[in-house]
Amino acid sequence: MSEAANQKKIELYEVLKEAILTLELRPGADIDEAQLSDSSGMSRTPLREVLRQLAGEGYLTLRRNRGARVSEMTHTNMREFFLAAPMIYGAIMQLAAQNALPDQIVALKAVQSEFRKALRSGTAKDRALLNNSFHQITGQMAHNAYLLPSFNRLLIDHARIGMTFYRPNCQDMADNLETAADQHDAIIQCIEEGDEVTAAQLATDHWNLSRGQIENFVMPQGLDIPFGQFGFSTSA
Amino acid sequence: MSEAANQKKIELYEVLKEAILTLELRPGADIDEAQLSDSSGMSRTPLREVLRQLAGEGYLTLRRNRGARVSEMTHTNMREFFLAAPMIYGAIMQLAAQNALPDQIVALKAVQSEFRKALRSGTAKDRALLNNSFHQITGQMAHNAYLLPSFNRLLIDHARIGMTFYRPNCQDMADNLETAADQHDAIIQCIEEGDEVTAAQLATDHWNLSRGQIENFVMPQGLDIPFGQFGFSTSA
DNA sequence: ATTATTTTTTATGTATACAAAAAAGCAATG
DNA sequence: CATTGCTTTTTTGTATACATAAAAAATAAT
């Protein structure tokens, strides 16, 4: 029975992670222990342990006597994110090119193939999760226990930012994703060849692509309507 | 009663952290839940939550159905440590110089004063913990939620490495610690003046000092005894 | 009608009891 | 004398029940 119980625990952990990464559980949302206990079919004791772990990894924040809440994303957070990301991503890619194991390269290619598929026929959620998996694997390849905590923390908000700034019906976005996929392929090649210099460069490029997309979203072209031409109603 | 209970929880958390940082709890040591439950006067339920949190922060590792164990320090780990540390330390210092708040500077000076005191009359444990506190505060000053996880993870093993490679009766070590304290003062000054360039440089210097000390310990001068002069006994 | 105060309800935190798995001890066998 | 298979003991994991704190609702007072 314990084997099954542990499986439930892992499943709950995965489900919560996905829900947070895809914004199904919004930043700031409260976690209801009783309800989760119901829906997951396990008691609150092991459930609370899962919540603690997720808090440790940055998915949740705990407040004394007030339960867990999905980690916030404020504009201050965003600034911190943009400062840290290029450095950590670059370091991880460089180390990945140095240390990747054959099995990991196989896994990376498999995820990339799924990612391409999701670009054609998947949902935004699929894409975000597969992109996340791709980078998670590069993190494992880097084989550095000291960089991983920050890298994983960045990946959480990278996924969430991607979901936030995603427009389903925008050609620019589609083009961007294609470019991202091409960069993934280039990254795979570098890693396979152990070319750490190019790997670090590609990390920067890949990162700049994401940033450009976000900047475009946050600071769009103004609407080109001459001043004084708005159709105000003066009837009421 | 819950207020007191929570205090016990925090205390246990702090006690375990200190014990791990100072090697009272050795890397690889098993954590006995029943015994901890006894000595801390709380039941296993909240205790296990504390263990999970410590695992999330890198102090412990959990194994399925086998309880918690103090995180290992292998030679592979050390290599990873040396690769990651300069980059993260430099970034943290630079950001600390940019973002430090007056209160934090006051706190930093207070810890540095205690550190100086410990150099004169404290134990190795006192020094390690106060040095740890010093750097923890610089981490807070940097005000970057994405860099902190890795920085804190590095600080754990920085403290443990310092304890491992400490010789109580060695003049070189004492000189090294004096230099470290001087560098702390220089760091404080940079942070106060907001001089981020010098701060990053000092981080590198401070780091090189630590590394030099460790290298000296790991690769000491060979004993200068001529070959063939050992006093083997041939009697038995 | 609005604010204070109290009761009620809900949710969070802890202790205990029990179930399951791993470890240790012990005998039997080759 | 090491190895295997069994039993006992210890340890780990989960469920339930209860205690405590926060939030909500209801009542009283101005």
Q: How do the helices and strands line up, and which of them pair or pack?
A:
2 copies of one chain form a homodimer.
Chain A lengths: L1 H20 L11 H8 L3 H13 L3 E4 L3 E4 L4 H25 L2 H20 L2 H19 L5 H17 L6 H23 L2 H23 L18
Antiparallel strand pairs in A: 1-2
The first copy, chain A, binds a DNA duplex (30 and 30 nucleotides) through helix 1 and helix 3.
Structural summary, described in words:
With 236 residues, chain A is mainly α. Chain A folds into 2 domains: 3-70, Arc Repressor Mutant, subunit A (Orthogonal Bundle), CATH 1.10.10; 75-230, Up-down Bundle (Four Helix Bundle (Hemerythrin (Met), subunit A)). Helix content of chain A is 71%, strand content 3%. Chain A is built from 9 helices and 2 strands, in the order αααββαααααα. A two-stranded antiparallel ribbon of chain A has the order 1-2. In chain A, helix 6 (124-142) runs antiparallel to helix 7. The first copy, chain A, is globular, with a radius of gyration of 21 Å. The model of chain A has no long low-confidence stretch (mean pLDDT 92). Chain A binds chain B through residues 2, 6, 45, 48-49, 52-53, 55-58, 64-65, 77, 80-81, 83-85, 87-88, 91, 95, 143-154, 157, and chain B through 2, 6, 45, 48-49, 52-53, 55-58, 64-65, 77, 80-81, 83-85, 87-88, 91, 95, 143-154, 157. Chain A binds a DNA duplex (30 and 30 nucleotides) through helix 1 and helix 3.
